[in-house]
């Protein structure tokens, strides 16, 4: 999870508390949203995230993290489909984007399966600490099939 996310590596003391507080505040002010995904047995399967919501522009960035033991079972696809539905049907998005490290082939496959269009690559984007990546921009519009 640390390789492809903005989570610092290693996470500093208090990171989880501060991260959770950011999402709790975001739920109140509309700036971000997130939830945990559980498998049928109630075990943690991943996270579904909207780390950046611009209600005025009608644009939402989405993301998903799948727990290691839940990978390869369609969890990422299910999370992204639910997030996308929520973004358009409930949050009023006019454009939804995914920012995916070009080395994260699994996440790019999920985006493609969910009908996202790869728009291009932003080169040498700062991810965290001293790590820079090439980051693909994927998007969906309400009019996309």
Could you characterize the architecture of this molecule?
The protein has 145 residues and is an alpha+beta fold. It has a single domain (15-140), classed as Gcn5-related N-acetyltransferase (GNAT) (Aminopeptidase), CATH 3.40.630. Helices cover 27% and strands 37% of the residues. It contains three helices and six strands, in the order H-E-E-E-H-E-H-E-E. It has helices at residues 15-29, 75-89, 105-113; strands at 33-38, 44-54, 59-66, 95-101, 117-128, 131-140. It has a six-stranded mixed β-sheet. A hairpin with a 4-residue loop joins strand 2 and strand 3. The protein is globular, with a radius of gyration of 15 Å. The relative contact order is 0.14.
Quick description:
The chain is of the alpha+beta class and 145 residues long.
State mean pLDDT (0 to 100 scale): 94
Major β-sheet annotation: 6 strands, mixed
The CATH superfamily label reads Gcn5-related N-acetyltransferase (GNAT)
CATH architecture: 3-Layer(aba) Sandwich
Task: State the share of residues found in helices, binned by percent.
Answer: 25-40%
Give the H and E element order: HEEEHEHEE
How far do the termini sit from each other? 30 Å
* Total helical elements: 3
Uncertain residue ranges:
none
Strand content: 35-45%
Topology:
Layout: H1 15-29, E1 33-38, E2 44-54, E3 59-66, H2 75-89, E4 95-101, H3 105-113, E5 117-128, E6 131-140
Parallel strand pairs: 3-4
Antiparallel strand pairs: 1-2, 2-3, 4-6, 5-6
What keywords describe this structure?
single chain; 145 residues; alpha+beta; Aminopeptidase; six-stranded mixed β-sheet; 3 helices; 6 strands; 37% strand; globular
């Amino acid at each position: 999870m640390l390789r492809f996310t903005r989570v610092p590596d290693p996470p500093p003391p208090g990171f989880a508390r501060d991260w959770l507080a950011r999402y709790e505040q975001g739920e109140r002010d509309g700036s971000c949203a997130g939830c945990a995904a559980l498998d049928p047995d109630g075990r943690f399967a991943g996270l579904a995230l909207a780390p950046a919501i611009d209600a005025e522009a009608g644009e939402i960035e989405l993301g998903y993290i799948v727990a290691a033991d839940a990978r390869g079972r369609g969890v990422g696809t299910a999370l992204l489909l639910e997030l996308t539905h929520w973004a358009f049907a409930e949050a009023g998005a006019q454009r939804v984007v995914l920012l995916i490290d070009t080395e994260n082939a699994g996440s790019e496959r999920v985006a493609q399966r969910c009908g996202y269009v790869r728009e291009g690559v932003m080169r040498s984007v700062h991810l965290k600490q001293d790590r820079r990546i090439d980051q693909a921009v994927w998007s969906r519009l309400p009019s996309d099939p």
